[in-house]
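Q&A log
Question type: sequence-to-structure
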Amino acid sequence: MTVPGTGWKNDLLLALCATLVVLTINAVSGFPTLANYGADNDSMLRLVEVRDLLGGQSWFDLHQYRMGASGGFVMHWSRLVDTPLALIIMAFDALGASPATAERAAQIIWPTLLYGLTIFVLMRASRRFAGANVAMPAVILSTAALFFLVIYSPGVIDHHNVQLLLTAASLWLLMEAPSWRPAALLSGICAGLTLAVGMETAPYVAVLGICAAALFVLDDRERITARGFSLGFAGIASLVFVATIRPADWGLAQCDAFSAFQFAVAALSGFGLAIAATLTASTTRARLGSTLALAVVVAAAVIAFFPQCLASPYAGMDERIRTYWLADVVEAQPFWSVAIHQPKLMAARYVTPFIAILLIGFQLRSRRLRREETLAAILLLVAFVVSLWQVRGSTFSVAFAVLPLSAWIAKIRLRADATPSWRLSTGIVMAWLVSLNATWAGVAVAAQSMVQKAPQRINSDPDHAVTCGKPSDFHDLAAMPATTVLASSNLGSGILMFTGHRALAGPYHRNVGGNLAMLDAFMGTPDAAHAVIERERVGLVAICRGNTEEISLGLEAPKGLAAALLRGDLPAWLELDQSTAGKPIEIYKVR
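Response status: OK
Response body:
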């Protein structure tokens, strides 16, 4: 089986070269994202999960026993991402590499592989969108966009890079479907896999499915596309359901992780559309009727059996956790908050998608969009709307913006080649500049430095929201006998990765008991904190003085334990380990 279309070998080679260049840059700079994990809690906990899996924890057991209140809690992540990382580590272990070397290899190889594949997919999708050879602008824009998103940097092994690759691949393959028959099936498989990896991509998966159904309704020739996509989507959802969920939990519905709810919707909508695309008459009215009937059946099933999943994802969250944790999670911020408090992030994440949407709008004024352009435009617009709600949506909109921006640059280039002029040459330069998100980030930094406007919130600067992310910061803690550690949630994943201790708190919405206990201890009076520490059997308290989460808690509760420790005012039942005084992480022993 070969990749469809022309120039795919050239695109693959360019993607490989771009990936190697970026890898070399990271290697020469000493792999900075491996030297300092900063706020990348998800990548640290992902490696902990892989270690647990390789250490004998059941494939079906997603408990994180070393975090939270007694007994831990069940994570909402998928083993699908753990698997390739574990296989890479096992391969290097079989070659005689040390455990640390094997893990480091996995932390470099996996995101780098995903980086190259995503560049290739975006190049192929850009070629389809433009209907012309846009290889050069596509490879440059995609490489730059993904580089500044940081999600493909060595050490970043959470699931966001996997989700972006699979979503972009599903879009590209749906664009390819008329000219390459297996593409629709593969598109559905990619859509099902990205949904199984995490619920963040649910809006994009829903849009892709709706697009496949709409194509079928509008054009009888697209029934093969709709059937292939829906069979791939429902088929992979069924396989993942059986392969990753223990039979005893098949009836359990979870709104934030792949479970009976997501499987039921995928199977019902997927197999239902496949049947409709096979049996429905060729008239537009018949196709529309069968598709609407299927939509009604799926909606009725969700309302009847899974009404709890129709609420907001954070509807049931404890208000204190929402206030003192979620409100400061950068990727969960809405556009208005990012625009006010983080102009650099706003410029890097929102301007190029907005320009891409404008380009598509201008195109609509002169002609109808082609099939491929329409699909890409819809997904870009949806991703941009999602990013207005939460900045995490901009990860997808920045990547999808590469398609119209590449076509725009290539179009100006063709005009300049046909009738050279200084205006067109200047236009090419300007088009390149405004299409790079790094340009806009630089403009925002320059503007901010001119007005000397400091961040207005404690955690408003993502570059300085968390310190104590270096492995060496945890050496003293790792040398102490294993116990439960009270620390801010932003230190939780690091404690698990670099030490043998348990962490009471961690930045995960399911860790309700542990995070509430941490808030009770750090924001309560020393006497109230002592009661929590005795109840949770805490042996050590760790403070990172540069961690803005602890600074924030101290400001919110000036009479609380966190504020007292930051002032150096120790209660009688705590003793500072003098060897850690003045170090990034200060450790206090419970008497």
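Response note: Residues 99-130 form the longest helix (32 residues).
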